[in-house]
Amino acid sequence: MERPFENILVYINGSEESLAAGMAAIIMAKTTGAGLTAMYVVNTRALSDLVSARIFLPMEQEEYRRDLEADGDRYLRHVEKLAQEKDQKITLCKISGSVQNEIKDHIKKNNIDLLVLGGIGGIRSRRDEFLNEAERVMRSSPCPVLLINDDEFIWDRFESL
């Protein structure tokens, strides 16, 4: 029987929702035999925008970038440990650039056939809606997207796997 998905990509940004998406992706990969990649994107576009808006000085930009990279390493290690708990192989990918563009490029270059994203929280303002990277990725993904909204359900399923 053919697998429903061959290659799954989960976008991790450190939020609780993205970590639940990581667990959901591990469950799906484990139960279907699909390959699994967890990706963190250091959003250099947003950093440049902060310097352009004079919110950050260029020197502060580099310090904040290093902090974001360290955060990304920590989040990816956490998802890797979750995968190891379930004996699931996972590839980690940390990249810099525009979140939307980097995810789309990775999907196309690596034959990803399912993107897993954490739930999109309530929109508090038009600005939040415009800046929500996960939503932008969801709307422009070149492959099917699985949106994980019920964190408790996923936690329960993950624990019982």
Q: Characterize the main sheet.
A: 5 strands, parallel
Question: What is the molecular shape?
Answer: globular
Mean pLDDT comes to 86
Rg, please?
16 Å
Helix content: 55-70%
CATH architecture field? 3-Layer(aba) Sandwich
Concise account of the structure shown:
The protein is built from 7 helices and 5 strands; from the N terminus they run βαβααβαβααβα.
Layout: helices, strands, pairs:
Layout lengths: L6 E5 L4 H17 L2 E9 H9 L5 H28 L5 E7 L1 H11 L4 E5 L7 H6 L1 H8 L4 E4 L2 H10 L1
Parallel strand pairs: 1-2, 1-4, 2-3, 4-5
Helix pairs in contact: 1-3, 1-7, 2-3, 4-6
Provide an overview of this structure.
- The chain has 161 residues and is of the alpha/beta class.
- The protein has a single domain, classed as HUPs (Rossmann fold), CATH 3.40.50.620.
- Helices cover 55% and strands 19% of the residues.
- The protein has seven helices and five strands; from the N terminus they run βαβααβαβααβα.
- Strands 3-2-1-4-5 form a five-stranded parallel sheet, sandwiched between helices.
- Strand 1, helix 1 and strand 2 form a beta-alpha-beta unit.
- The longest helix has 28 residues.
- The radius of gyration is 16 Å and the shape is globular.
- The two termini are 22 Å apart.
